[in-house]
User: What shape does this take?
Amino acid sequence: MNEITLTPNVSQYWEMLYEQGLDEWDLGEATPALLEFFEHPSCPKSGDVLVPAAGKGWDAEAFAKRGHNVLAVDFCPSALDSMEQLANNNSNLQALNLDMFLLSPCEEKRGGKKFDIIYDYFGFNSIQPGRRDEYVEMWLKMLKDDGFLIGFFCPLCEEKYGYEPPYSISSKELEARFNGIMEIEERIVPRKSVESRIGKEEIWLLRKII
Ligand SMILES: C[S@@+](CC[C@H](N)C(=O)[O-])C[C@H]1O[C@@H](n2cnc3c(N)ncnc32)[C@H](O)[C@@H]1O
Assistant: This one.
């Protein structure tokens, strides 16, 4: 039998990390820096939210509890089990089992609409860097005109990314990627980063340019 090569492109790669307890990104609760951002004057107060690479769904649930309608997307069984439990307790939270690169505003089973807000924490930094163009295209496709992207970028640094996720990103690369398609409205250094992320992450509030 052929051996499967596990790369971050396939769900088996992520499932292996969940099963082996190597999911150190998972906080078991909403990210404190997101809850802090909810209090920031620039944080959009309303609108439907798409959460790609939602993991176990804690942050998606936090948006739902804040009153947003939320679609949380992941392709890993362990992530979906948890997300579905949260969705059972929050009628405005929906869990979708899908490769997020296949999201489409036109197909019901792949999202089926455009969103006011996309929240991305470790989605961008988890995909193989060669797929970043494709990923940003997905954001643009799924965002309403004038919609917001709330991107937590981590690690954000000038060093070149390594060979496994999270793949770092530099401010220069982000600025170049967003030039002409997304307005950088604000960059915020969270005060409540978890210890391992202190000094390594920023929240970028971006608005789609029509
Ligand atoms: C590093 S985790 C971050 C999870 C969550 N955002 C958090 O901060 O806890 C990355 C997640 O992205 C998911 N993922 C990676 N590539 C994906 C893809 N192409 N489609 C759907 N989910 C994907 C993985 O299954 C994993 O749950």
